[in-house]
Structure formats: structure tokens, C-alpha cells
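[audit] Reproducing an earlier prediction to check determinism. Same input, same settings, fresh worker. If the C-alpha cells differ from the archived copy the diff job will pick it up downstream; this log only records the rerun itself.
[audit] input (366 residues):
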Amino acid sequence: MRLDEISTPSRVADAGEGVSQPELGLAARNHGMPLEAMRYDLTPPGLHYLLIHYDIPFVDADAWSLRIDGLVDRPLTIDLAALKAMPATTVRSTMECAGNGRARLEPRPVSQPWLVEAVGTAEWTGVPLRDVLLAAGVRPDAVDVVFTGADHGVERGVEQDYQRKLTLAEALDPEVLLAYEMNGAPLAPQHGFPLRLLVPGWYGMTNVKWLRRVEVLDHEFTGFQQKAYVVRQSSDEAGVPITRIAPRALVIPPGFPDFMTRGRVVRPGPVLLEGRAWSGRAPVARVEVSVDGGATWAAATLADDGGHRWAWRRWSHSWLATPGEHLVTARATTTDGEVQPVDAPWNRGGFVNNAAHQIPVTCLED
């Protein structure tokens, strides 16, 4: 049997086709963040979303090292102790999977079936990548910097180590980190122990976990994961590369839930609606809330970012609930006028679907 028979091409679900067992298997491995966890400014590591392409590699920290090579004057091999001896930086950053919202599209792209929970916010501590690249002596004709993880698998018939790239200019951003801590503790195995890349404001696929090599190239990198994460309408398009996170506001589900459907129940009277909003593009300027599915909107109170440019911000709004059925939703608008859509355009990979979050709410009779 060939690899392309084991790992089949991407496809779009047929009309009425239910979620498959392989998709359920992915959903069991790659969990979302419970939406009520948005009440934490920093997501506890066990509640932060996870997307693991292949297996979680077992890495012996004592034997591990990072190789920096390619188009550099002084190739380096650095162990964890040497990295931790370098000046460290901490960045609070919201991370979101590029496929967040995929399962809400129609027709559904067949892959990890995210609803809206593929997100989390953490404080990441590590060494600025810029410092390591400059120590290695990046040459003037460098173009791209490629990051290779220790996870290995086959995807769409291609056997590979997980790899992503940044341009040299992007890699030299002082906020891009070689991170070894999450929320003040060593990275958990599922979050990339002992070292991962942290690129604030970018979708999660760029934040390579279990990092083992950084290679500088004199040409554009066109590996599998670089070509896979694009927005396109058909399989024969090159597509538009996915980079920074589109603006989004999510609602913390109000009231209490039904066990099976997660439908929300509130009682008449004042109900605090709250949630979080973020953007990897221009900063969020305002959040609006609707309780009638977007027919009317009201301004929410948006908390200050506290100096954390790349982290989500809390918003809140007081709603006087009346008996009946309601559809609660929220949308974010950025400083440059980008408005989160009520309905996001469809694309074949189900990427960058930042359609407004909608929660059906039943208000009981008095």
C-alpha cells in the first residue's frame, strides 16, 4: 500500500453527511477550550485548546538541543540550559487555530471539526528568536527561516516532519519567542515541551511545537504545511496564505446548560452577558452585542488591554431578559474598521471562519 492510499486528499462533506468516526477521533485528541474558561485572564494549560497534527513526541530534555543552521556564519547547537541562561521575555498572547469554526460551515470541509472553542490565552516566556539568529550571524541574502518540530507523520499522502516558515523580517520581530514556559511553568508535553515557537497575533499553525531545528534559507520555503494553510475556493487554486488572526468576539454562555444540547437557560431579569474579544490584525476598538440574532445591536463595555496587545480583552453588557427564545451574539470591530461578519465567506479548508458567535438562550416564564 502507498502513502497516498493511507492518507487521502482533502474533501468537502456531501450534503447531509454526518461527522465521521475519523473526525470524531480527531475531536477526541484535539480538544477545545470550554467557553466558560474565558472568565480566566490566562487559560489554565489543561483548558487551553490543542491541535496536534501527528503524535506528541517524547522528548528527553537532558538530551535535547536546538540546531540553528543554514545561511548563517556561525551554526549553533543550543541546549535548554543555555537557552534559559539568555535574557528572557514574557508575552501574553491569545492563540487560535486557523480552522476554528470549520464545523459551522456548509458544506463542511472534512477535517478537525472545530465549533468555536479552538482558542486560549497564555503568558509565554522564552528567548527572543531575534537574539539567537543574530548570534548565529544571519547572512544578508537570507529570505526565509524554517522551523522544524519533532512530530512526524503523513498528511494527504506526504510523509513529513511538521514545518512552518517566517520571512526573515517576520522572524526578527523582537516579540517572536523561542518559548520554554507557559503561565510560569515548563511547557507541558502537549504544548510543545521543551521548546516551541511563539508568534504573537498569528494563527496557531505557525507556533511550531517540539522545536528542534531553525534553518535559514536563501529562497522561499514551500513545504506541505505552508501550502496547506491557505484560503481557497477550489483544490486547484494556489490560495491566499493564512497569517494573522481575524477579529473575533466570543460569548461566555449565560445562565445554565442543558446537558445534551448545551442549550442555555436563564430566568427573567438582569443577565450579565460577557466574553472576550481579540485580533491579530489591528487592535479591537469596540464590541457590540445582540439578543435578537443581529437584528439590533448594543455597545458592550470593553475592558482596557492592560498593555497586552496580543491578548484577548474582556467585554460585558447588562441584558434585561424577558420570557421567550433569544439568540445572543457579539461582534468585534478593529481600529481600522474591520467588522467581524455575521456570516463568514466559505472556503475549502474551513479556515479563518470568524463568523459571529451565536448562542440560543431560553428565558423561562416567571
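[audit] rerun output stored. Observation attached for the diff report: The helical segments are 3-6, 21-29, 80-84, 129-136, 168-171, 224-228.
[audit] end
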